[in-house]
Amino acid sequence: MINNKKIVVVMPAYNAAKTVEKTFKEIPFNIVDDVILTDDYSTDNTVNIAKRLGIKHVLTHKKNIGYGGNQKTCYDKALELNADIIIMLHPDYQYTPKLIPAMCDLVANNVNDVVLGSRILSEGAVKNGMPIYKYISNRFLTLFQNILMSQKLSEYHTGYRCFNAETLKKIDYNSNSNDFVFDNQLLAQCCFIKARIGEISCPAKYFEDASSINFKRSVTYGFGVLKVSLMYFFQKLGVFKFNIFKSLT
């Protein structure tokens, strides 16, 4: 806990058998109260390893429902456990768990409602292995979203996020996509309710066992981000109404 806030780490997993143990062992349990791992029908040994590590809450899907759907299960369970602060940490060891205290501190001390671990604020995203096409698309999409959504974020596409649970309770995240664009929809919803969003520098690792979507799915995600930005813009103008913002108006 920090300031008597219950801190829960959620790990949406898919074929993370090679990295989940290393990730788990770096979680700072001097402040983290609980860990949830949701497995999206992995074909490897992820679930058995998670149970061997002593992760108390290991939830499994009976079929693969997608990255966004996996997060929905994570957040539902974290709120069920009465978490005050929820950190979404990928179990593929791409993001370091060592930043959890810094991210949680900003939320626990009422500085921010949401904190993002930004790869762009750190030096050398490309040097650390980010494919150049992903870096360029990241910069373009972020600029597009900042303009249409009147924000000043360095990136919208990091998978490392810390939330005040009260913020998630205000958002109908279950109305979002089950695919990768879920992340972007959730962040757009946070912007829509004027959540205080902060960022910290977060170097990310790119290696063979780290999860990464391929070029084709990256293109699909990119078009999804453009759609979310336009939906946000027109919803704010009052021209159209969209389901993901329905409960926020």
UniProtKB/TrEMBL annotation:
Top-level division of the source organism's lineage: Bacteria
Annotated ranges, domain Glycosyltransferase 2-like: 9-170
Name listed for the protein in its UniProt record: Glycosyltransferase family 2 protein
Lineage summary: Bacteria, Pseudomonadati, Bacteroidota, Flavobacteriia, Flavobacteriales
